[in-house]
Fold this protein.
Amino acid sequence: MIKGLHHVQITIPKGTEEEGKKFYCGILGLPEIEKPESLKGRGGFWIKVGDRDVHIGTEDGFDRMSTKAHIAYEVEDIAYWKTRLSNENIKILDAVPIPNYDRFEFRDPFGNRVEMIQNLKL
């Protein structure tokens, strides 16, 4: 039986961890968490999102712009995030509507597809 979701991993190019931390920890405001000692030599970093982790690994030779794979962050104030990201010169992309949700997409500085989604029923 599957109990739940432990973590999600996305990748950024090797050697771009500092740029990744500026985006994910700085712009998105997600706290970095320490990786176990046994994994520190593999590159990347981990962040906390609510009660889950996102592992940001490093990987070259992958076209992140060509995939539909993405991570969706649930937010309380989607208008804030549209403004915040636009102010950082991040292009906001309209998403296909889903009943009872407001959402949009963008690409992180590495090409990963990211979605911001707000439940309008809460």
Observations:
- The mean pLDDT is 96.
- The helical segments are 17-27, 78-87.
- The first strand starts at residue 7 and ends at 12.
